[in-house]
Design brief:
This protein has 96 residues and is of the alpha+beta class. The chain has four helices and three strands; from the N terminus they run E-H-H-E-E-H-H. Helix content is 60%, strand content 16%.
């Protein structure tokens, strides 16, 4: 389920209310969207949330790569082989 309750603040809050912005991203794990002159300008995330997004993106990219490879090759793996390969990939990604 996607959180539709976004925290939107003016970019000036980085200077004037940095501690509050920082507390918000750390306590909620959600981004704070910053605006400049009424338009979206940037997003602030905690390091933990950012790393989680990067990890999810890498896993998604690997799955897409696997789907493309499956379309172009006749090679198939058993569920046991696939699970072992995923565990190896996840362990390697977690060390990065």
């Amino acid at each position: 389920m996607v959180n539709t309750n976004r925290t939107i603040r003016p970019v000036s809050d980085l200077r004037n209310n940095f501690a509050d912005v920082s507390r918000t991203v750390h306590e909620t794990g959600e981004p704070v969207f910053l605006t400049k002159n009424g338009f979206g300008d940037m997003v602030v995330l905690s390091m933990e949330a950012y790393e989680s997004l990067r990890f999810d993106s890498r896993v998604y990219d690997m799955l897409l790569e696997g789907e493309r490879e499956a379309e172009t090759t006749g090679e198939r793996f058993s569920p046991k082989e696939a699970l072992a390969a995923m565990r190896t990939a996840i362990d390697g990604a977690a060390r990065v």
